[in-house]
Amino acid sequence: MSAFPETPLPDAPPPPEEAGDETLWEKLSAFIMPAVTLTLLVSAAFPLFDGAEILSDGDTWEAIRWHAYAPSSLPARFSVTNVTIRVDRVATKLIGTDLALNFVLVQEWEDERLVVKRKGKPGLPSDIKMMNVESIVRKDGDFTPIWKPSLATEPAHVAEKSSEATWLRLDGGVMRTQSLNIFASPAPTSSPFNETDALHYVVKIYSTREFQNRVALQWNISEPFNLLTPTTENSIDLKRSSNPWRVDVTMGQCEMQVNWGDSSALSKLSCLEMGFQFRKIQRSDEKKNVENLSPGGSLVELLFTVYGTITCIILFHFYHSYSRTEFLP
Questions:
Q1: Residue 134 carries which DSSP code?
Q2: Three-state SS for 245?
Q3: Residues forming beta bridges with residue 56, ordered by sequence position
Protein backbone atom coordinates (compact mmCIF):
# COMPACT_ATOMS: atom_id res chain seq x y z
CA MET A 1 0.00 0.00 0.00
CA SER A 2 1.45 3.35 -0.96
CA ALA A 3 2.16 6.08 1.55
CA PHE A 4 0.84 8.74 -0.79
CA PRO A 5 -2.86 9.17 -1.47
CA GLU A 6 -4.01 8.14 -4.88
CA THR A 7 -4.95 11.19 -6.99
CA PRO A 8 -7.00 10.55 -10.14
CA LEU A 9 -5.32 11.60 -13.33
CA PRO A 10 -7.07 14.34 -15.43
CA ASP A 11 -8.86 13.33 -18.61
CA ALA A 12 -6.85 13.52 -21.78
CA PRO A 13 -7.74 16.55 -24.02
CA PRO A 14 -9.75 15.75 -27.13
CA PRO A 15 -7.79 15.55 -30.36
CA PRO A 16 -7.86 18.77 -32.44
CA GLU A 17 -10.46 18.88 -35.19
CA GLU A 18 -9.05 18.73 -38.65
CA ALA A 19 -10.01 21.61 -40.93
CA GLY A 20 -12.27 20.09 -43.54
CA ASP A 21 -14.10 21.43 -46.56
CA GLU A 22 -17.03 22.61 -44.48
CA THR A 23 -14.85 24.76 -42.24
CA LEU A 24 -13.05 26.31 -45.26
CA TRP A 25 -16.37 27.09 -46.98
CA GLU A 26 -17.65 28.76 -43.82
CA LYS A 27 -14.55 30.95 -43.72
CA LEU A 28 -14.92 31.88 -47.39
CA SER A 29 -18.61 32.66 -46.94
CA ALA A 30 -17.84 34.90 -44.03
CA PHE A 31 -15.48 36.89 -46.27
CA ILE A 32 -17.37 36.80 -49.58
CA MET A 33 -20.83 37.78 -48.39
CA PRO A 34 -19.79 41.14 -46.86
CA ALA A 35 -17.67 41.89 -49.95
CA VAL A 36 -20.58 41.20 -52.32
CA THR A 37 -22.95 43.27 -50.18
CA LEU A 38 -20.50 46.17 -50.12
CA THR A 39 -20.03 45.96 -53.90
CA LEU A 40 -23.77 46.09 -54.52
CA LEU A 41 -24.18 49.07 -52.23
CA VAL A 42 -21.34 50.96 -53.92
CA SER A 43 -22.68 50.13 -57.40
CA ALA A 44 -26.14 51.35 -56.46
CA ALA A 45 -24.81 54.55 -54.95
CA PHE A 46 -22.18 55.26 -57.63
CA PRO A 47 -24.60 56.99 -60.05
CA LEU A 48 -25.31 59.49 -57.29
CA PHE A 49 -21.67 60.58 -57.27
CA ASP A 50 -20.67 60.46 -60.96
CA GLY A 51 -22.76 63.45 -62.01
CA ALA A 52 -21.25 66.78 -62.96
CA GLU A 53 -23.69 68.60 -60.61
CA ILE A 54 -24.51 71.53 -62.86
CA LEU A 55 -26.32 74.47 -61.24
CA SER A 56 -28.13 77.31 -63.01
CA ASP A 57 -28.94 80.75 -61.60
CA GLY A 58 -30.97 81.68 -64.67
CA ASP A 59 -28.25 83.08 -66.91
CA THR A 60 -25.13 81.06 -65.99
CA TRP A 61 -24.56 77.33 -65.74
CA GLU A 62 -21.85 76.20 -63.35
CA ALA A 63 -20.47 72.66 -62.87
CA ILE A 64 -19.51 72.00 -59.25
CA ARG A 65 -18.19 68.43 -59.66
CA TRP A 66 -17.17 68.18 -63.31
CA HIS A 67 -14.21 65.96 -62.34
CA ALA A 68 -16.66 63.24 -61.24
CA TYR A 69 -18.05 62.88 -64.77
CA ALA A 70 -16.56 59.89 -66.65
CA PRO A 71 -16.72 60.43 -70.43
CA SER A 72 -15.62 56.84 -71.06
CA SER A 73 -18.80 55.48 -69.41
CA LEU A 74 -22.07 55.18 -71.28
CA PRO A 75 -24.97 57.38 -70.13
CA ALA A 76 -27.07 54.25 -69.56
CA ARG A 77 -24.94 52.05 -67.29
CA PHE A 78 -27.11 48.93 -67.24
CA SER A 79 -29.20 49.33 -70.39
CA VAL A 80 -29.01 50.50 -74.00
CA THR A 81 -28.17 54.12 -74.82
CA ASN A 82 -30.54 55.23 -77.59
CA VAL A 83 -29.14 57.80 -80.03
CA THR A 84 -31.65 59.51 -82.33
CA ILE A 85 -30.30 60.49 -85.75
CA ARG A 86 -31.58 62.94 -88.35
CA VAL A 87 -29.99 64.72 -91.29
CA ASP A 88 -30.58 68.38 -92.05
CA ARG A 89 -29.78 70.81 -94.87
CA VAL A 90 -28.90 68.08 -97.37
CA ALA A 91 -27.22 69.36 -100.54
CA THR A 92 -26.49 67.07 -103.50
CA LYS A 93 -24.51 67.54 -106.69
CA LEU A 94 -23.87 65.06 -109.47
CA ILE A 95 -20.33 65.03 -110.83
CA GLY A 96 -20.48 62.66 -113.77
CA THR A 97 -22.01 59.54 -112.25
CA ASP A 98 -20.71 60.25 -108.71
CA LEU A 99 -22.64 62.06 -105.99
CA ALA A 100 -21.17 64.87 -103.88
CA LEU A 101 -23.22 64.99 -100.67
CA ASN A 102 -23.15 67.54 -97.85
CA PHE A 103 -25.46 67.51 -94.83
CA VAL A 104 -25.66 68.27 -91.10
CA LEU A 105 -25.77 65.12 -88.97
CA VAL A 106 -27.84 65.76 -85.82
CA GLN A 107 -27.46 63.30 -82.92
CA GLU A 108 -29.56 63.39 -79.73
CA TRP A 109 -29.41 61.29 -76.56
CA GLU A 110 -30.13 61.48 -72.81
CA ASP A 111 -27.44 61.70 -70.10
CA GLU A 112 -28.82 61.92 -66.56
CA ARG A 113 -25.35 62.77 -65.23
CA LEU A 114 -25.68 66.19 -66.89
CA VAL A 115 -29.09 67.22 -65.54
CA VAL A 116 -29.08 70.92 -64.64
CA LYS A 117 -30.50 71.94 -61.25
CA ARG A 118 -31.84 75.45 -60.86
CA LYS A 119 -30.91 77.80 -58.06
CA GLY A 120 -33.60 79.82 -56.36
CA LYS A 121 -37.10 80.00 -57.76
CA PRO A 122 -37.51 77.80 -60.87
CA GLY A 123 -39.21 78.97 -64.00
CA LEU A 124 -37.66 82.43 -64.19
CA PRO A 125 -38.06 84.17 -67.59
CA SER A 126 -34.28 84.53 -67.88
CA ASP A 127 -33.69 80.78 -67.55
CA ILE A 128 -31.70 79.39 -70.47
CA LYS A 129 -33.21 76.19 -71.84
CA MET A 130 -30.12 75.06 -73.78
CA MET A 131 -26.42 75.91 -73.66
CA ASN A 132 -23.25 74.95 -75.49
CA VAL A 133 -21.35 72.43 -73.37
CA GLU A 134 -18.11 74.39 -73.71
CA SER A 135 -19.81 77.49 -72.26
CA ILE A 136 -20.54 75.83 -68.90
CA VAL A 137 -18.45 77.38 -66.10
CA ARG A 138 -16.26 74.88 -64.21
CA LYS A 139 -14.90 75.36 -60.73
CA ASP A 140 -12.62 72.35 -60.65
CA GLY A 141 -10.57 72.55 -63.80
CA ASP A 142 -10.48 72.86 -67.54
CA PHE A 143 -13.05 71.47 -69.93
CA THR A 144 -13.10 67.73 -70.50
CA PRO A 145 -15.28 66.27 -73.27
CA ILE A 146 -18.54 64.51 -72.43
CA TRP A 147 -19.54 61.12 -73.78
CA LYS A 148 -20.46 61.20 -77.47
CA PRO A 149 -21.36 58.39 -79.85
CA SER A 150 -18.51 57.23 -82.06
CA LEU A 151 -19.96 57.13 -85.58
CA ALA A 152 -18.62 56.31 -89.02
CA THR A 153 -20.10 56.35 -92.51
CA GLU A 154 -19.82 54.22 -95.60
CA PRO A 155 -18.56 55.69 -97.91
CA ALA A 156 -16.13 57.49 -95.61
CA HIS A 157 -16.88 61.11 -94.72
CA VAL A 158 -14.89 64.27 -94.10
CA ALA A 159 -16.13 66.27 -91.10
CA GLU A 160 -15.89 70.04 -90.79
CA LYS A 161 -14.51 70.34 -87.25
CA SER A 162 -15.01 74.09 -87.09
CA SER A 163 -18.78 73.75 -87.39
CA GLU A 164 -19.23 70.94 -84.82
CA ALA A 165 -21.17 71.87 -81.68
CA THR A 166 -22.64 70.06 -78.66
CA TRP A 167 -25.62 71.48 -76.76
CA LEU A 168 -27.05 70.53 -73.36
CA ARG A 169 -30.67 70.90 -72.21
CA LEU A 170 -31.90 71.38 -68.67
CA ASP A 171 -33.21 67.83 -68.47
CA GLY A 172 -29.87 66.26 -69.46
CA GLY A 173 -30.69 65.90 -73.14
CA VAL A 174 -27.66 66.34 -75.43
CA MET A 175 -27.68 67.42 -79.07
CA ARG A 176 -24.60 67.23 -81.28
CA THR A 177 -24.35 68.66 -84.80
CA GLN A 178 -21.69 67.79 -87.38
CA SER A 179 -21.30 68.95 -90.97
CA LEU A 180 -20.25 66.01 -93.17
CA ASN A 181 -19.08 65.74 -96.77
CA ILE A 182 -19.40 62.41 -98.62
CA PHE A 183 -18.40 61.43 -102.14
CA ALA A 184 -20.40 58.37 -103.22
CA SER A 185 -20.36 56.17 -106.31
CA PRO A 186 -23.51 54.61 -107.78
CA ALA A 187 -24.77 51.45 -106.11
CA PRO A 188 -24.27 48.18 -108.05
CA THR A 189 -28.01 48.11 -108.82
CA SER A 190 -27.85 51.40 -110.74
CA SER A 191 -28.11 51.40 -114.52
CA PRO A 192 -26.16 53.59 -116.94
CA PHE A 193 -27.70 56.82 -118.17
CA ASN A 194 -28.41 55.50 -121.62
CA GLU A 195 -30.68 52.73 -120.29
CA THR A 196 -33.05 54.06 -117.63
CA ASP A 197 -31.70 57.53 -116.80
CA ALA A 198 -31.70 56.61 -113.09
CA LEU A 199 -28.98 56.33 -110.44
CA HIS A 200 -29.10 54.93 -106.91
CA TYR A 201 -26.73 55.82 -104.02
CA VAL A 202 -26.53 54.30 -100.53
CA VAL A 203 -25.00 55.93 -97.42
CA LYS A 204 -24.62 54.01 -94.13
CA ILE A 205 -24.16 55.51 -90.65
CA TYR A 206 -23.03 53.11 -87.92
CA SER A 207 -21.57 52.97 -84.41
CA THR A 208 -17.92 51.92 -84.17
CA ARG A 209 -17.03 51.87 -80.47
CA GLU A 210 -20.02 50.15 -78.85
CA PHE A 211 -22.07 47.17 -80.00
CA GLN A 212 -25.77 47.17 -80.75
CA ASN A 213 -26.68 45.92 -77.27
CA ARG A 214 -25.08 49.03 -75.72
CA VAL A 215 -25.69 51.82 -78.27
CA ALA A 216 -28.72 51.77 -80.59
CA LEU A 217 -29.13 54.22 -83.46
CA GLN A 218 -32.62 55.14 -84.63
CA TRP A 219 -34.05 57.64 -87.12
CA ASN A 220 -35.93 60.69 -85.87
CA ILE A 221 -39.08 60.26 -87.96
CA SER A 222 -40.81 63.23 -86.31
CA GLU A 223 -38.61 65.72 -88.20
CA PRO A 224 -39.03 66.12 -91.99
CA PHE A 225 -36.15 65.38 -94.32
CA ASN A 226 -34.72 68.78 -95.30
CA LEU A 227 -33.34 68.44 -98.83
CA LEU A 228 -31.90 71.69 -100.20
CA THR A 229 -30.80 70.89 -103.77
CA PRO A 230 -32.66 69.50 -105.51
CA THR A 231 -35.89 69.19 -103.55
CA THR A 232 -38.12 66.17 -103.80
CA GLU A 233 -40.54 68.36 -105.76
CA ASN A 234 -37.74 69.13 -108.25
CA SER A 235 -37.28 72.85 -107.68
CA ILE A 236 -34.61 73.07 -110.37
CA ASP A 237 -35.44 75.65 -113.03
CA LEU A 238 -36.36 73.47 -116.00
CA LYS A 239 -35.93 76.35 -118.45
CA ARG A 240 -32.35 77.03 -117.45
CA SER A 241 -31.22 73.53 -116.56
CA SER A 242 -30.47 71.17 -119.41
CA ASN A 243 -30.14 68.20 -117.02
CA PRO A 244 -32.91 68.34 -114.36
CA TRP A 245 -33.25 65.51 -111.82
CA ARG A 246 -35.83 64.31 -109.36
CA VAL A 247 -34.55 62.87 -106.06
CA ASP A 248 -36.37 60.26 -103.98
CA VAL A 249 -34.97 59.62 -100.48
CA THR A 250 -35.44 56.46 -98.40
CA MET A 251 -34.34 55.78 -94.79
CA GLY A 252 -34.12 52.51 -92.90
CA GLN A 253 -32.01 50.09 -90.88
CA CYS A 254 -29.00 48.13 -92.14
CA GLU A 255 -26.73 45.33 -90.92
CA MET A 256 -23.14 45.93 -89.88
CA GLN A 257 -21.00 43.25 -88.25
CA VAL A 258 -17.45 43.06 -86.94
CA ASN A 259 -15.35 39.90 -86.95
CA TRP A 260 -13.06 39.23 -83.99
CA GLY A 261 -10.87 36.76 -85.88
CA ASP A 262 -13.23 33.82 -85.61
CA SER A 263 -15.93 33.47 -88.24
CA SER A 264 -18.35 32.31 -85.53
CA ALA A 265 -17.67 35.32 -83.30
CA LEU A 266 -19.56 38.11 -85.06
CA SER A 267 -20.88 41.13 -83.18
CA LYS A 268 -23.53 43.45 -84.57
CA LEU A 269 -23.12 47.20 -84.75
CA SER A 270 -26.11 49.54 -84.88
CA CYS A 271 -26.48 50.84 -88.44
CA LEU A 272 -28.76 53.24 -90.33
CA GLU A 273 -29.10 53.61 -94.10
CA MET A 274 -30.04 56.43 -96.50
CA GLY A 275 -30.88 55.84 -100.14
CA PHE A 276 -30.87 58.52 -102.85
CA GLN A 277 -32.64 57.71 -106.13
CA PHE A 278 -31.95 60.16 -108.98
CA ARG A 279 -34.26 60.12 -111.99
CA LYS A 280 -33.75 62.33 -115.01
CA ILE A 281 -36.71 64.53 -115.96
CA GLN A 282 -37.27 65.56 -119.59
CA ARG A 283 -38.44 69.05 -120.39
CA SER A 284 -41.66 69.58 -122.32
CA ASP A 285 -39.86 70.59 -125.52
CA GLU A 286 -37.62 67.55 -125.26
CA LYS A 287 -40.68 65.31 -124.90
CA LYS A 288 -42.18 66.75 -128.09
CA ASN A 289 -38.96 66.19 -129.96
CA VAL A 290 -38.73 62.64 -128.70
CA GLU A 291 -42.33 61.96 -129.68
CA ASN A 292 -41.76 63.39 -133.14
CA LEU A 293 -38.59 61.42 -133.60
CA SER A 294 -40.00 58.24 -132.17
CA PRO A 295 -40.18 55.45 -134.80
CA GLY A 296 -43.16 53.98 -133.00
CA GLY A 297 -45.09 57.25 -133.30
CA SER A 298 -44.32 57.59 -137.04
CA LEU A 299 -45.49 54.03 -137.72
CA VAL A 300 -48.80 54.62 -135.93
CA GLU A 301 -49.38 57.83 -137.88
CA LEU A 302 -48.59 56.02 -141.14
CA LEU A 303 -51.03 53.23 -140.35
CA PHE A 304 -53.79 55.72 -139.53
CA THR A 305 -53.13 57.53 -142.83
CA VAL A 306 -53.27 54.32 -144.88
CA TYR A 307 -56.42 53.18 -143.07
CA GLY A 308 -58.12 56.52 -143.70
CA THR A 309 -57.16 56.50 -147.38
CA ILE A 310 -58.45 52.98 -147.93
CA THR A 311 -61.70 53.82 -146.11
CA CYS A 312 -62.26 56.87 -148.31
CA ILE A 313 -61.65 54.85 -151.49
CA ILE A 314 -64.13 52.16 -150.45
CA LEU A 315 -66.78 54.69 -149.51
CA PHE A 316 -66.33 56.56 -152.81
CA HIS A 317 -66.57 53.32 -154.76
CA PHE A 318 -69.83 52.32 -153.07
CA TYR A 319 -71.30 55.78 -153.53
CA HIS A 320 -70.38 55.87 -157.20
CA SER A 321 -71.82 52.40 -157.84
CA TYR A 322 -75.08 53.22 -156.02
CA SER A 323 -75.51 56.47 -157.94
CA ARG A 324 -75.13 54.74 -161.34
CA THR A 325 -77.61 52.02 -160.47
CA GLU A 326 -80.26 54.49 -159.35
CA PHE A 327 -80.32 56.59 -162.57
CA LEU A 328 -80.08 53.84 -165.21
CA PRO A 329 -83.27 53.47 -167.44
A1: G
A2: strand
A3: 61, 118
